[in-house]
Specification:
Elements (H helix, E strand, L loop, with lengths): L12 H9 L2 H31 L17 H8 L1 H32 L4 H15 L2 H11 L6 H8 L14 H26 L3 H9 L4 H12 L1 H16 L5 H4 L11 H10 L4 H26 L7
Helix pairs in contact: 2-14, 3-14, 4-8, 4-11, 4-13, 5-8, 8-11, 9-10, 11-14, 13-14
Length: about 300
């Protein structure tokens, strides 16, 4: 009869430890993890803890904070009408990003996702605004919207209209801001969708065509369901990005006119940093951080959890 080989004896604790220590992955972990943890702690964890500490002081940023005010900074923030306007403007950006920017990006991605020289040129053109620096984009569009010598002035003059200053109008300034935000960032979401669409198997599309599916049906029932994970990730980036909008607004309106175009971040900058109210600004930063973390956790549980079927 054939002999049954004996099972190899269990490794001792010392042998297992030696194997772990001589493993290349462990060596890479030992070499790369400490520097990353140190940098993360110095530039992320420590500033967060300091902001949480400074939020309870009336402090101008010089010397040690000594004027402890408790929750007074938070009370002033909650009672400030401009803060309410900043929250509402941030919500508007989230809605515009989800309901205008993402559908526009998906529509264009469906038109140019195929690998052709012409589509590659259009992808480059549509992606250029995202590459452009936010401050530069804001300055460019401030020229476009200028009522004296910008594109708006030229168009209005061609029709014999009086000069109209969009960025100085309380009703239209933030509409202009949201227009620039859509123009600036739709290319980023478009590229996410293009990458996902190029991964859709051609066999499924051809099979749907053979079965008599129309182009709209292929998009609705084949392509969009298969790129749903990309859409979920894109929506997450849109929401988190809307909470951080700053660089576009400052060169466009600087929060004006009459503080009507502030977001939470520009509100922090204007009423905290520029006025040397570091404690007040830290309180705003704490609220913004908690909001962003809460949104990220909720969104991950609601849309990105492993149990969700794409």
């Amino acid at each position: 009869m054939p002999t049954i080989p004996h099972a190899p004896p269990h490794l001792s604790l010392a042998q297992r430890t030696r194997n772990v220590l001589t493993n290349g992955k462990f060596a890479a972990l030992v070499l790369l993890l400490p520097p990353a943890l140190i940098l993360f702690s110095l530039f992320v964890i420590l500033p967060l803890l300091q902001s949480g500490y400074f939020a309870f002081f009336n402090w101008n940023g010089y010397g040690e904070p000594t004027d402890y005010v408790g929750l007074k900074n938070f009370e002033q923030m909650i009672g400030h009408s401009v803060f309410h306007s900043a929250i509402w403007n941030t919500i508007k950006i989230v809605l515009v990003s989800l309901l205008v920017q993402m559908p526009l990006a998906l529509f264009l991605a469906l038109l140019i996702y195929k690998k052709t020289p012409t589509n590659a040129l259009f992808r480059l053109i549509f992606f250029v605004p995202y590459i452009l620096a936010e401050v530069a984009a804001g300055l460019i569009w401030s020229f476009v919207f200028d009522g004296h010598y910008g594109v708006t002035a030229s168009v209005g003059g061609a029709f014999g209209l009086e000069p109209f200053f969009i960025l100085a109008d309380r009703d239209w300034a933030f509409v202009a801001v949201m227009t620039v935000i859509v123009w600036k960032y739709f290319g980023f979401h478009m590229m996410i969708y293009i990458a996902a669409l190029q991964g859709v198997p051609r066999d499924l599309i051809e099979a749907a065509r053979i079965e008599g599916a129309k182009p709209f049906d292929i998009v609705r029932y084949v392509q969009i369901p298969l790129i749903k994970p990309a859409i979920i990730v894109s929506a997450f980036f849109a929401i988190i990005g809307a909470l951080q909008v700053f660089d576009v607004i400052i060169p466009l309106t600087n929060g004006g006119p009459s503080n009507t175009s502030h977001t939470i971040v520009t509100y922090l900058y204007t009423f905290g940093l520029t006025r040397l109210r570091i404690g007040f600004g830290s309180a705003i930063g704490v609220v913004l951080f908690i909001t962003a973390v809460a949104v990220a956790i909720f969104y991950q549980r609601a849309a990105m959890s492993p149990g969700k079927k794409p």
